[in-house]
Each structure stands twice: as C-alpha cells, then as structure tokens.
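Below is the data:
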Amino acid sequence: MRALSRRVGLGIAARGDVEDAIEWARRSRDAGLEAIWIHDSYFERDAVTYATAIATALSLDGHDSDQFRVALGAVNPLTRHLMVLAMTGSSLDDILPERITMAMGTAQPVRLAQMGIPYSVEDAVAKVSDTIDKLRLLWAGERIMIGSPNLPPIQPMFPPVHRIPLYMAANKHEYLDVAGQKADGYLAKPCESIPSLQKIHGRIWEAARAAGRDPAEIDTAAYLLSLVDKTRREALNRAKREPFVIYMMSILTPVSMNRAGFDIELRDRIGAAWKAEDYHEAGKLIPDEMLDAFMLCGTREDVAEKAMAFHARTGLDLPLLQPVVQERHQILELIESAKLYAALPAPATVFGPERTAVPSLAVAPSPPAASPSGGLVAASVGSSSSVAGPAAAVSDEGAPDSLANDRRLNVFDRVWRRASAAYEIVRPFAYTVTVIPVLAGGALSAVDGRFQLVPFLAALVASMLIQSGTNVVNEVEDVRKGIDTITSPRASHAVLKGRFTENGAYAFALGMFAVAITLGLYIAYLRGPIIIALGIVGLIGGYGYTAPPFRLKYRALGVPVVGLLTGPLMVAGTYVAVTGTFSPITLVLSAPIGLMVAAIVHGNDWRDISDDSRAGIHTLSAAIGKYWARYAYVGFVLAAYASLGLSIAVKALPATTGLALFSLPFLAQVIGNAELGAQGQARAIAKIDLETAHLHLAFGTLLVAGLLLSLSIR
C-alpha cells in the first residue's frame, strides 16, 4: 500500500449501502489514507456490522502489506456490554489482524434518554474508565469478575492476538483526564473548533504528565465535518441548507460557542428554528464564520488547507474528513482533499504536547465582531485569510451572494454554472404541460384552415416563459416554506445550493414574465384586447400559484387552477391568438389535456403529502387525505381518456384523435405504481409526477397527431 506523507483518514456513519462503504474504504486505502472510522449512529444502522463487512472485504483483497486500519469510533459501553465489546474486538482482529482500533464514548445524553438509559457524568466516566481497564485484561486472556460473586469469573475463549488501541471519545473534563491517564488516543467529535481542540488537547496532555505518561504517546484524532463543492460560496450555501448541519449548530455547547467567539443566543435561535423544522430560517441564521469555525467548507483545496490549520494550530495527529452528505461524489472529493492535505508544505510551528503555539496561534480568540445574523463571530478563529479565503459578500436579503468568492472558477466556468443553474430552476422536463395545449390549439386552427405561424410561435414562447417564471417562483417559495430541502428527490437545488439567491431567482422570474408580457402585447396588437385579458389571468394564476397574496397551491386550489390554466385557457387562448376568434370546440379539446395536467400536479402533491402537511401546506391531497388522494389521482387520468372517448362518440372531435389510446401502456404504468403507492410502497410513487408527465406527453402528442391526420384525410 502506498502511504501518504502525512496521516489522514476518512470518517463515515453507518448508513447507506454497505457495498458503497466497502468501495470507499478501498479507495481510501489505495489513495494512501491511514484509516476509515465508522461512527456508531443510533437509530440508523450498526457500525460493527459495517466495520465487519469492510474488514472482511479488505482481508479478502489479500494485500498482506497493508497498514490501512478500520476503526470503530465510537462504541458505547452504556449500550454494549464490555464482554460484547471484547468479543467484537477479538473477532475484528481475527478478520483484519493488527489493523483494528476502537474508541469509547457515551453518546449525547438526549439520545440515551430517548432509549431510556439513565445518564450521569460521574457514573458514565467511571463506566468508560472501567471498560478500558477490563477490556485490556480480557484481551490479555485474564479471568475477571464482572457478574455475581457467587459465579465463576469470566475469560474470553478467543482473545485477540494483536493489541487493539483504545481511544477516548468524549469531551467533558473528566473524560479528558481519563484519556490522559490511560487511553491510547483521543477522538474528537464533529464540530469542535480550533480553540476548543487546543483546550482539549492541553487538558489531555496535562493529565498525561500528571499520570507519569509521555503526552506524545497519546494519539489525537478528530472528525472534521466537511462539505466540498465547486466554490467555497456554494459549499457554504449548501451546508446552511443541510438539516444535519443545522442540527449540529443547534447543539453546540455554551463552552464551544464561547471558545469560538460566538454568542450563545445565536445557537438558541438556530435551535428554535430547527425544533420548529423551519430549516430555511435556521439556515439564514447561520453566518459563514460559524461554519468556518466548526466545519471545513469549500473546494477540495479549501478543505485541505483548513485541515492543515487544525493540524498546525491544535497538534491534531489524525484529521478524519467526515462528509456532511454521505454520497459517492462527496467521498471521492474528500479523498482528493486528503491527498492535497498530505502534500501541503509542513507548517513552521505545530501546537503540540512538547511545544507551545506561536503568538498568532494563541488559544484566546480575537475580539468578536458582529455577524450578519446578529450573533457574535470571531473573524480570525478557525480560519485565516490563507485558509478561508475572502469574506463572503452578503445580498440585500441577508443571504450570501452566489457569485462571491469564485476565485477558483474561470469566466467560462462561471457562465456555465449560471446557465446550468438557470436550466435547472426552470425545470424544462415539465414543458410538456405548456407545449401540448399550445400545439393542440394550433392544430385545431390548422384543421379549421386558419393557421398562422408567427402568432402561433409568439403564443408558444410566451406560454413557456410564463410556465418558467411560475416554476422559479414556486421554487423560491417552497424553499422559503421549508418544503424543498437539499435532500428533496425531485426538487431543483439551484436556490438551495446558492447558485441563485432568492432575490436573484425572483428577478429571473420577473424578467421572463416581462418578456411574456411583451409578446402578449404583440399578439393583442394583432388580435385585440381579449388576449390581454387572457394573459392577465395566466400571469395571476402562474405567479399566484405559490407566491403571496394568493398562494393558490397552499389553499387546496393548485390542482383545479393548473387544470384550467393548461386546459381551457391555453388551448382556447392559442386558438384565439392564431385565428382572432373563439371556437367552442377548444373547450372540448382542452378537457382531456387539462385533466392530465391536473393529474401531474395532484400526483406530485400526493407523493409530498407528509412534507407539505408538516410545513403547513394545505394542498388538495392534504385536504382529502392519502386514501382519497390515490382515488383522485386515478380519477384524473381515467377522466382524461373518458372525456376524449365521449368527445369522439358525439363527434365533437374527429375519430382520428383516438390515436391517443396508443398511450395506454403509459397509463398502465402509472396506475400500477399508484396502486403500489396506496399499499404503502412510497418508492413506487417517488417519480409519479415525472411518469405522469411522460403519459401526458404521449397522450397529448398522439392527440395532436390525430387532429392533423384528420386534416390530411379530409
């Protein structure tokens, strides 16, 4: 195994596909990292199981010269009996000899309380200390008494052949003293600041000296919560949208806040928003400086430089880069950051057990300055100009400017990033709901022998612009209401990741509305004031779908309004724009089209009913409940076919429009998924809106083709 020139590791939680965790361990090993540490996350999955799978895979790779380690950090003697821990360590050492590490901690008291486990600092410290002593005795093959005095002592049948290092993983003073007295190392939790780690390490080294130990023998490791993006600005913006980051900022201790130079009142306001599940407001409260103090956010180079700051200014031996978002891309980026960290020049001064920091690395924080969120921040704590980069710009809405601090992007990259953000936020996959009714209105005008290309194209572009503006406004309002989060599967992330500020997105939407209005005025010049009336209705319906004061979606009016706008209004409006007259057949033609679009919107609301209800959003689905929402969805799609069949039967539409029946395979797919969703299989309707959009596209295209076919036959 090739080793990096400086120690660094990867930290992950026990979640996700175990095969992914194995891949990440292999990639870390092959890149030269020292270890992968698995955090025991209660209420998720078992860290020991993941460690066993990883250790087994690495063992089967057959790289006997490997020194890559697998570490449990941390396991809890309050939830795992010391005999179980002894057998766990022995088993893992047998699978991956000489490459197992184990850290001891007691978890957050609130987590223990949720599990009904009593907690006091005095008892917990005694338990951890006693567990360390007895694990070493058991692993040495000694018999010990831990049960009833009337029973024989216990002895492990298979003690580990190799020594397993034991780390302390708790930050109260009493635990730090135990770490200095007897532990092989210390593991710091995520979101410790540089001043906090300086204090922690100093306490451990002091306890070690008092116990007659060499402080340099105590290894120090720390989870450094990290998030990588193309720019520091985007990384900071995304971090502020992550519920996990918000939670971590809300549980910082008063001591941690004070050491980093922040007012505890800021944490309390963030915590209040987190408890209310108002993640949008909570994210706005977190200043950039707070993230810089407790996390590593930025490009892979930024993360590497900030990890070096922790190493140099605290004496940290083993930085463990832990992803905020445990996904493949982030893991690969952090492995690259680890390699960059190892390649950085050695710092002139390192804070450590045998050294004191130079004055610029002093423990005491600089005087705090006022933050944009009203808290106190220490601008020089946790980062420096060479590490954190220039201060972030702040827009008039209090959110960071999405173009600030893009020093690593060239002009082409900046333009491409903004263009891709615009493409994402307008949701072009949904253009079917606009294009199909306009095509239908235009096709009907052709059947009547009155088609004109220029006003048709003007109507098509204007309609698409109104829909785009509606999508953008909907995006911003859903983010503000906390409906869309960074983990929302179908949401655009353009605003969430800061590629657009909220005000910038609104300006983008208003610009598209303005162009649509200009085109509408041109059509009105050709066809008369009726077009202005239709355009006003369309604009009010689009903008007011989620925006105040109407907020139609939030008042259970979204589905019927969208059905009317994309059905009668757009089909009839296009016909009027092209011909200058109204035809009652447009209303007949628009019925199946509007019903299908209503099904798209209702399917989306049905899938999101839990999130919408939590956020106080009163959609039609939320109003009628999950049971009836399923029937309403099926009713909309079936009614579209029924209305088409009835129109053909009464000869209101030509028989050739029956071509739309060739879309029945798409109908079978969505009906089948709807049935599975009604049975509780949430994954079956995870993309119900997109699947219904495909159905609408197939149905509508065939319907338009049938209209044009009737013209050629006639």
